Amino acid sequence: MNATEVTPAMDSGLDEGAIPDFVDGEPTDVRRWLELVINRRRLSPAHRRVARYLLDHPEQAAALTAEDLGKRSGVSQASVTRFAMELGFRGYPEMRAELGNQIAAQAKSGPNGLVGNVLGRTVAKDVANIEALVSSPWAGQRLDRVGRNLAGSQPLPVMGLRISRPFADLFAYFAAKVHPDVRVVPAGSDGDDVLAVAAKAGATWMLAFGLPRYPRALLDSIRYARSLGLRVALVTDSPLCPLAHDVDDLLAAPVNSELTFDSCTAPLALTMGLLQAITEALPDHGQARLEEFDQRAEERCLFID
């Protein structure tokens, strides 16, 4: 097993400068299209702010002038224009027109008769986010690659802070049933100690969960892990998140930010998919550990049948 298999986190196989489109009749997702357009480009901080606003508010952005979009993003009008040209458009008007076309296509191909209450809207958005993972360049085959790399790291440190802590705990709970040595990393200097011991024990990768809002302490731990020689795989909501350029590989699933508190259904689905990829990368050892656990559980009557 190759424990160091990795390709650049921003590589999806698209030609640089190409503006992707969807074939006639294929359901269109605006955020998916935007991610494909932005993919593989090393954006400046100002351009990343524009991209983040577009991904978070595509419908509103389609109605804004370059000046208004700049104000919403906290950048200049000139930065918005340069951003559009960086993506391969002749200028901002062409980019805005294409964004409008994508929104219209999504409205035409999207589900009809959605329930008008809060739960109906939440479910519809979460379902769309999950479906987008199937063809996302930040999941798919990338998921298998990350799973193989993490399976080959023994021990495997796992970290998540604040809203991401439950994801790290859930992942570690299940991963420990198939992986021989999973270690949850706490925050601060205690976490640094765990990382240093793991690196000395032979760890090659750390898995970090970083959903919005992104804790500064997590970025500090990521950078410390890399200073120890560890590679870092990140599970997050967007390839444009502020942690992206400090990791070696990245998986992304959008959150539903239309609620007071983000719905993280798609990131949870991505996490469970990653667990499956790790299990499949450890076919013999993982299965043996699962069988041992089932036997112990039966002997101790742990569960009510």
TrEMBL record:
Domain HTH rpiR-type: residue ranges: 30-106
GO function terms (MF aspect): carbohydrate derivative binding; DNA binding; DNA-binding transcription factor activity
Top-rank taxon: Bacteria
GO process terms (BP): carbohydrate derivative metabolic process
PROSITE patterns per record: HTH_RPIR
Coiled coil: none
Protein name: Transcriptional regulator
Organism: Mycolicibacterium goodii
